[in-house]
Amino acid sequence: MEEKRINERESLELITRMIADTRSRIETRDGNIVLNWGLLSVAVAAIVWIALVTTGNPGFNGLWGLIALGYLFNRKEKKAQRQKGYTSFTDRISNRLWIPVMVMAVVSFAVCAVFDIVLEKNLWKLMFTFPFIFVGFASSVQGYVIDVKSLVYGGMLNMAVGIVLIALLMEGIRLDTVWAMPLFIVCMTTLMIIPGLEMKHLARRGHEKS
Question: Chunked in runs of 10, what are the mean pLDDT values of the chain (210 residues)?
């Protein structure tokens, strides 16, 4: 059987449909995931902030481990996404983009915990810069893939803030919990909560048009 060759215009149309289809699925399901992660991150940050300010005990930084609860949200949404149908190459790029971020988060948390418990060295402030740089980068790339501007701009803003924080640490300038944690909460709002709400809005608007 002779294979049908497609021209440049048909190729472009195929790629456009694939991206639009991926965007629709990501907006519907990943909008919930992004929003859930954002709300969880802000809630945990608020708990850690209150604990640190009221007690002054850096050991309460271990409460950041509560972020792992986010995987419970992911399981339900990802299962529903798989049941939706086939997975395109663009879907796989978008989903697998977060795998290195998750691995690095676990490794970074473990390193900080070991230094704190075994060597009594407080490296938690370095861990504090992680979501700004790596999560910001992954969010910005995903925003370009599915054309969600708040993800792109939120990711870029967080990367810029992360670079500034690392520069402050390298110069020996203390990241005071009083202002650093509220900064984190504001940045996570721009990085996850606002894009999550936009994605859900786009999904509802697309559903109404269909």
Answer: 51 58 54 82 91 86 80 65 55 72 83 85 78 89 85 94 92 86 93 88 63
Contacts of 180 (CB under 8 A, 6+ apart): 128, 165
Please tell me the distance from the alpha carbon of residue 180 to that of residue 174, in angstroms, as a whole number: 10
Residue 20 CA to residue 176 CA, distance in Å, equals 44
Alpha-carbon gap, residue 64 to 52, rounded angstroms: 12
Helix (H) or strand (E) holding 158: helix 149-170
Return the exposure string of 4-40: e unless at least 16 CB atoms fall within 10 Å of the residue's CB, then b: eeeeeeeeeeeeeeeeeebbbbbbbbbbbbbbbbbbb
Residue with tokens 């456009």: 16
pTM of structure? 0.72
CA 45-130-178 angle, to 5 degrees, is 40
